[in-house]
Amino acid sequence: MTAPVVQSAATETGWVIRFFMPAKWTMETLPAPSDDQVRLVTVPPSTVAVLRFSGDRSPKAVASRIANLLKTLQDNGIQPTGDAEAWFYDPPWTLPMRRRNEIAIPIDPACALH
Prior knowledge:
Layout: E1 5-10, E2 14-19, E3 48-53, H1 59-75, E4 85-88, E5 101-106
Antiparallel strand pairs: 1-2, 1-4, 3-5, 4-5
């Protein structure tokens, strides 16, 4: 996969899973969802700080990686502008050491030049 599957906690409803489509697709060319719980939305561009990792992607492992990235941002004077997300690129059966996972936290674009 070239685009991540994003998993974030939703209030009382479980998880929200987002699939990013490659830029070659548009809202007009994507097929209409057959399930009313699936929605197609345009995601505005953003600047994010990313920590890439492999291996375990359990909630505990993800929380640890989020803490690591938040500390790195804090140590460098960069203030997050939104909540962290876990981005997963591989199916669950991929060997842990071969998985590509990322933690992404939105930041102010001006901080990216820091």
